[in-house]
C-alpha cells in the first residue's frame, strides 16, 4: 500500500545530510563542551558553529541564540522568564487566541502567579488585528506574544504591523515561529521582534533541538539554574548532536528555502482547489497568507478522528487540530476562536506537505479523501444537518 | 565598600539574574576586550559579587573604582590597568 506522510507540522523526517553531520557527535566526538581538553573544545566549537548557522537562518547575531530542547521549551522560556524579569514594570500580558498550548498554558500559569493576561480575539481567517492589539494595551502591559503562523490553520499573521503597534508602547514582543522558521523567510530584524521561538524538527532537523532568539540587551530570568551553559540562562550539559543537527538543518533550510516553498506550494494549491469543490468542505485559515505546505479543512457532518483513522488505514497520515491535540477529543480552541461552530470544528483535518511528498501522493489523496468523506457521511447521524441545536447547520467559514 | 556615582563606563555588561560564576567569567571576558584605562560597568544582582569583584581586581591588578546600588541590582565599575 502507498504510504503518504502529510503531517509535517507534527514533525519532519531527518534530512540525510543532517544525520551525517550529527553522527560523529554520537560516537567519537562525545566530549562535554565545558571540558578544557581537546574533546571538550571540539564539542564547544561544534556548538558555536551551530549557533552561528541558526542565527544566520533568522538574521540574528550568534550571541542572541540560546539553544533549548524544543519549541515548547522556547515558548515557556520566553513567556515566563520575561514576565518574571519585567514584573516590576507591569503585570499585564497579551497573547493571541491562535497560540500553541505551550504559550496558552504558560499564560495560565502566569495568571495563577498574579499576572493579568488578555487573550486577543482573532477574525474568521485567524488573523490578529493590530487595532485589537492597540486597544488591549494598558499602562501595565509588559509583553505580547503572537504566533508567526498557526500550525493548525496555516494563517501567517501580520506580525510586522502588530510589532509596530506594540513598540509604540515599548512592549516586548515574542513570536512563536516554530511553524515558520525554515519554511518561509524569517528575519528577526525585519519583523522587529525581541524574542522568537524555533524548533529544528520543523525544518528537517532532529527532535530535541530548539532555540530562542533573545535580542541583545534584553534581560531575561534563567530558565534552568546550574552551570554556565548558554551564558547561564539555560544550564545543563548541551545535547551536542542535536544542536549540531539543528545547525546543519538551518544551513540547508537557508540555502533551499525558495526551492522548498516553490515545491510544496503547487501541491498545496491542488489539494485546496480540488477539495473546495466537495460539498460542505470548508478551508480554514486564509487562502493566500498561509504556510506554503499547509492545507486545513473543516468537513461538515463528520468527526476529524474518524477521518484520520480511515485515511490512516489507506496509508494517508494527517492530523486533526493542532499536532498535540489529536488525542484530546474536543473541538480545537483555535477554530472556536475563529468563530467556527463547535460541531463543524469537530470535523477539522490538516494536511501538511513536505519535500517527501510527490504529485502522485496528491493524486492518491485526492482520490481517497472524497471517498472517505462520502463513506463517513453515509453512517453519520448528522449527515442531514445539525438540526435546530447548536450551530444550526450554519457555517461562518465560507468557501 | 567604595561607593561611586555618575561613572561613565566605556562598556556595560548586564548579567542581572545570572548566577555564580557568570559574574567572574563575564568580567574576565569583557576586560580582555577593553583598552588600558577604559572602564567596565557590570550590572548584577548576585550578592557574591560584592566580595568577588573587588577581590578579582586586586588579584589581577585592575582598579576597582567602586559600586552603585540601584533599585534591584548592583553596578560595579572596574578600570582596566593590567595588560
Task: Explain how this protein is built.
In chain A, helix 6 (159-167) links the parallel strand 5 (141-145) and strand 6. Chain A has helices at 16-22, 38-57, 71-86, 101-112, 130-136, 159-167, 188-191, 240-275, 304-313, 333-337, 342-345, 359-379; strands spanning 4-5, 65-68, 92-96, 116-120, 141-145, 172-176, 195-199, 210-214, 281-283, 294-299, 316-317, 348-352. In chain A, the strands form three sheets. Chain A has a seven-stranded mixed sheet with strand order 2-8-7-6-5-3-4, with helices on both faces. In chain A, strands 9-10-12 form a three-stranded antiparallel sheet. In chain A, 38% of the residues lie in helices and 13% in strands. Chain A folds into two domains: 4-10 and 258-379, Aspartate Aminotransferase, domain 1 (Alpha-Beta Complex); 16-253, Aspartate Aminotransferase, domain 2 (3-Layer(aba) Sandwich), CATH 3.40.640. Chain A has twelve helices and twelve strands. In chain A, helix 3 (71-86) runs parallel beside helix 4 (101-112). Chain B has helices at 22-33, 49-60; strands at 11-14, 39-44, 63-69, 74-79. By secondary structure, chain B is α+β, with helices and mostly antiparallel strands. Chain B starts with 10 loop residues before the first strand and ends with a strand. In chain B, strand 3 (63-69) and strand 4 (74-79) form a beta hairpin. Chain B has a four-stranded mixed sheet, with helices on one face. At the A-B interface, loops of A face loops of B.
* Percentage of residues in strands of chain A: 5-15%
Number of strands of chain A: 12
Q: In CATH, what is the class of the largest domain in chain A?
A: Alpha Beta
Distance between the termini of chain B: 25 Å
Specify the structural class of chain B. alpha+beta
Series of secondary-structure elements of chain A, N-terminal to C-terminal: EHHEHEHEHEHEHEEHEEHEHHEH
Shape of chain B: globular
Which two protein chains have the largest interface (Cβ within 8 Å of the partner's Cβ), and how many residues from each? A-B, 12 and 11 residues
Give the CATH class of chain B.
Alpha Beta
| Sequence of strands across the biggest β-sheet of chain A | 2-8-7-6-5-3-4
Kindly provide the radius of gyration of chain B, computed on alpha-carbon positions and rounded to a whole number of angstroms: 11 Å
Q: What is the molecular shape of chain A? A: globular
Q: Total domains of chain B, how many? A: 1
- How many strand units of chain B? 4
Amino acid at each position: 500500500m502507498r504510504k503518504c506522510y502529510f503531517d509535517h507540522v507534527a514533525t519532519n523526517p531527518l534530512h540525510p545530510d543532517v544525520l551525517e553531520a550529527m553522527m560523529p557527535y554520537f560516537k567519537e566526538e562525545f566530549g562535554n563542551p565545558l571540558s578544557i581538553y581537546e574533546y571538550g573544545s571540539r564539542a564547544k566549537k561544534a556548538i558555536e558553529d551551530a549557533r552561528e548557522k541558526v542565527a544566520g537562518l533568522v538574521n540574528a547575531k550568534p550571541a542572541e541564540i540560546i539553544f533549548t530542547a524544543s519549541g515548547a521549551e522556547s515558548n515557556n522560556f520566553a513567556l515566563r522568564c520575561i514576565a518574571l524579569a519585567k514584573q516590576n514594570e507591569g503585570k499585564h500580558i497579551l497573547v493571541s487566541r491562535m497560540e500553541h498550548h505551550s504559550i496558552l498554558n504558560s499564560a495560565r500559569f502566569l495568571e495563577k502567579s498574579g499576572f493579568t493576561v488578555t487573550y486577543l480575539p482573532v477574525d474568521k481567517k485567524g488573523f490578529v488585528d493590530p487595532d485589537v492589539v492597540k486597544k488591549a494595551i494598558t499602562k501595565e502591559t509588559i509583553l505580547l506574544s503572537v504566533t508567526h503562523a498557526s500550525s493548525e490553520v496555516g494563517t501567517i499573521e501580520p506580525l510586522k504591523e502588530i510589532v509596530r503597534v506594540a513598540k509604540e508602547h515599548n512592549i516586548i514582543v515574542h513570536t512563536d515561529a516554530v511553524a515558520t522558521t525554515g519554511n518561509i523567510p524569517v528575519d528577526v530584524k525585519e519583523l522587529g521582534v525581541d524574542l522568537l521561538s524555533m524548533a529544528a524538527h520543523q525544518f528537517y532537523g532532529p527532535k530535541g533541538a530548539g532555540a530562542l532568539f533573545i535580542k541583545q540587551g534584553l534581560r531575561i530570568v534563567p530558565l534552568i539554574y546550574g552551570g554556565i551553559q548558554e551564558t547561564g540562562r539555560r544550564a545543563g550539559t548541551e545535547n551536542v548532536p542535536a544542536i549540531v543537527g539543528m545547525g546543519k538543518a538551518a544551513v540547508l533550510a537557508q540555502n533551499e528555502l525558495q526551492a522548498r516553498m516553490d515545491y510544496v506550494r503547487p501541491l498545496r494549491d491542488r489539494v485546496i482547489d480540488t477539495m473546495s469543490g466537495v460539498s460542505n468542505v470548508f478551508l480554514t485559515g486564509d487562502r493566500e497568507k498561509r504556510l506554503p505546505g499547509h492545507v486545513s479543512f473543516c468537513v461538515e457532518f463528520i468527526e476529524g478522528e474518524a477521518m484520520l483513522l480511515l485515511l490512516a488505514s489507506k496509508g494517508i497520515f494527517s492530523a486533526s487540530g493542532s499536532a498535540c491535540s489529536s488525542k484530546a477529543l474536543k473541538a480545537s480552541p483555535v477554530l472556536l476562536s475563529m468563530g467556527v461552530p463547535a460541531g463543524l470544528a469537530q470535523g477539522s483535518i490538516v494536511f501538511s506537505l513536505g519535500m517527501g511528498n510527490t504529485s502522485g501522493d496528491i493524486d492518491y489523496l485526492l482520490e481517497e479523501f472524497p471517498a472517505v468523506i462520502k463513506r463517513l457521511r453515509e453512517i453519520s447521524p448528522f449527515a442531514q444537518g445539525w438540526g435546530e441545536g447548536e450551530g444550526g447547520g450554519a457555517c461562518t467559514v465560507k468557501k | 565598600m567604595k561607593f561611586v556615582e555618575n561613572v561613565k563606563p566605556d562598556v556595560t555588561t548586564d548579567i542581572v539574574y545570572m548566577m555564580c560564576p557568570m559574574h567572574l567569567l563575564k568580567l574576565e571576558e569583557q576586560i580582555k576586550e577593553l583598552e588600558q584605562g577604559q572602564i567596565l560597568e557590570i550590572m548584577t544582582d548576585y550578592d557574591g559579587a560584592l566580595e568577588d569583584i573587588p577581590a578579582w581586581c586586586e588579584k589581577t591588578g585592575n582598579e576597582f573604582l567602586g559600586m552603585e546600588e540601584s533599585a534591584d541590582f548592583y553596578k560595579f565599575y572596574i578600570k582596566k590597568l593590567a595588560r
